Amino acid sequence: MASNAGYDVVVDIDDDDGDLGHTDLADLEFHQSNYNQDQASGKIPQNSSGGFFSGGGGPSGSRSGDSGGKRYLWSLDFYASFFDVDTNEVVKRCMAALFPRTMFLDVLEGNPDLYGPFWITTTVVLILFLSSTIAQYFARMKDEPYTYDFGILSGAAGLMYGYTAFVPIALWGVLKWYGSESANLLECLCLYGYSNLIWVPVAIASSSPIAILNWIFAGIGFGVSALFLFRNLYPVVSATDAKTAQVLLIVVVALHAGLALAIKILFFHHSVAKGKKPALMF
Length: 282
Prior knowledge:
This protein is mainly alpha-helical. Helices cover 54% and strands 5% of the residues. It has helices at 35-41, 76-80, 87-98, 104-108, 115-140, 151-177, 185-195, 199-205, 211-237, 242-267; strands spanning 7-10, 29-32, 62-64, 70-72. The strands form two sheets. It has a two-stranded antiparallel ribbon. It has a two-stranded antiparallel sheet with strand order 3-4. Strand 3 (62-64) and strand 4 (70-72) form a beta hairpin. The longest helix is centred in the middle third of the chain and has 27 residues, at 151-177. Residues 38-52, 55-68 and 271-282 have low confidence and may be disordered.
């Protein structure tokens, strides 16, 4: 039985008697329980056996459940813990991504998520489509009637989802290949996902018809997000040898510069187009 004060009651029953009714109250042992706290937070209890595809965890295809069972890769329970965050945690992580005062991996507190990265990337895709459409509309409204191009939306989705998913997966694979035990796939995906947050205000500001301002905004977006990635990836990448770490960091920054150029040229290159719409490579 359990009380309402957050305690578990353990009853020691003698093997000879086997009678609970004659148990002395002195044999009762009280232990702290976190049952009420887990219910109040509404969060899935965390498994401390290891991270998602981490070097020191359990099998990569399953996670231990509350009852010791397995969560298979094709089951919804396997992915549920990756979205086990509340609004306050997501807001805290967004602020840490935009205004870093400490290491972002410390802010995660061992509980990286995919909820924030998914919705941040989705928001960037929609903002890129809307801002690019508005910018192109004002750039050509005196020349010809404007028709909406939903290819911009598919192009933004392909660029942002592809970069946010495949680059961290590739980085994690390379780190594991070189024997990094601290590399964690879920943390890499979470890190890249939250680094996309700066592109929301950059995309909104880049609807300006002034070309030099758009280049400045793209540079700010690249600088903030690249510094965020460099700062948090450096301790993980440094687990490899010095030459490999240096090459990996250069590749990470170069790929991020490619993302910034792609956003600027594909979606906000309207200032040089007079009556002609820039083609997207998607």
